[in-house]
Specification:
Elements (H helix, E strand, L loop, with lengths): L1 E2 L6 E2 L9 H74 L4 H54 L1
Antiparallel strand pairs: 1-2
Length: about 150
């Protein structure tokens, strides 16, 4: 029996409502199932993100392999062209009849080689810039996609 302060009435048999354990078990089960479902969704999203990242890395490594092969082939071609030009120049030097002809031939060869080296350097630089862009593109795209998805969520 309890008394309400300031009131002269007594409340008889005002007990708490009966505790129903079956409802509690159902509520706990519902919360657990909801938590399990959220965990499954999070794992699925994580798994998808990992697969996307793996594909991006595979693409990046494949692109790096392709561009490094291309750069190697261009470098070898430039070295071969320079070696052939050197041998051709050496043959021309052997046939020289005067010192003035030698200096004239040598000056022309050096000028031509400097121009060729400049062109080769520009071509390799352009290839390296393109390779850098190509190699970083898959990772950049994957990052931007993930960022957009996170902002949308």
């Amino acid at each position: 029996m309890s008394k309400i302060i300031g009131n002269t009435e007594t409340i008889e048999n005002a007990g708490s409502p009966a505790f129903d354990s079956s409802k509690s078990v159902e509520q706990i089960r519902a919360v657990a199932e909801q938590g399990l479902e959220r965990s499954k969704e999070a794992f699925s999203k994580l798994s998808s993100d990992v697969e996307t990242t793996q594909r991006a890395f595979d693409s990046t490594f494949e692109m790096a392999k392709t561009t490094s092969n291309e750069m190697l082939l261009k470098t070898i071609a430039a070295l071969q062209a320079n070696a052939e030009a050197g041998f051709t120049h050496l043959e021309a030097l052997v046939a020289v009849k005067s010192p003035s002809e030698f200096f004239e031939l040598q000056a022309a060869f050096l000028r031509k080689q400097i121009e060729k080296a400049s062109e080769q350097a520009k071509a390799l630089q352009a290839l390296m810039v393109r390779a850098g862009d190509d190699v970083s593109k898959p990772i950049k795209d994957a990052f931007e996609k993930a960022l957009k998805e996170r902002k949308a969520a």
